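Running this now, will post back.
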Amino acid sequence: MVDLRSVDVGGIRLAYEVSGRSDAPSLLLLHALGEDATDWEAVVIPGLARSRRVYALDLRGHGRSDWPGDYSLELMQADVLGFLDVLGLDTVDLIGHSMGGVVAYLLAADHPQRVSRLVLEDVPAPRPRERTIPVKPDGDLSFDWEMVSAIRKQIDVPDPRWLHRLSGITAETLVVAGGPRSHVPQDGIAELARRIPGGRVVTIPVGHLIHRAAPEAFMKTVSEFLLVAEDIRPDR
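Update: finished.
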């Protein structure tokens, strides 16, 4: 059963879903640009909640969280850190897809003690790329369009320091690549894994939306990684 909840973090209301036993290890899910916590509901949350306390967050400007009009990946990172503090979650396993993966690796790099195991699903490396102007879709949106413009600018021209900060990640890290059908450059994904100490890559060649296009393969890969990484933790 999934519970819908919200918390106040620095004056920003963050909505989230939570499921699984309260005494199980904590796992946080961070969605892609324009998505929200519901993106994980079909397979990922039910599968992982069998052995984890799963939290799926709506990042600022998305879904049921506040749309404050002030957006950056650094602010999202600060929101996630504040979320962990408010809920009293000292250490979590962390899964991030695309934009959510950027937020995840920034958090894991700057606060390595807070992340035990890290999964990055088809996440771009922080390298400059050709800038494009996104076109606003028609109709009502489940996210703030101002947020899209702000975040896309940072992903197109990332802070050069982000690349070097990857070496500060201490979490056991799995990078799941979507293969040639993904719009994300796969050589950049490979570089991302190389720059994270102990990082490794598994390719599921179905494109960018791996957990939707190949849910069974994604769940098998992630579940096995979480179990193996847990077994080899240095404090065991």
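The chain has a mean pLDDT of 95. More later if anyone needs it.
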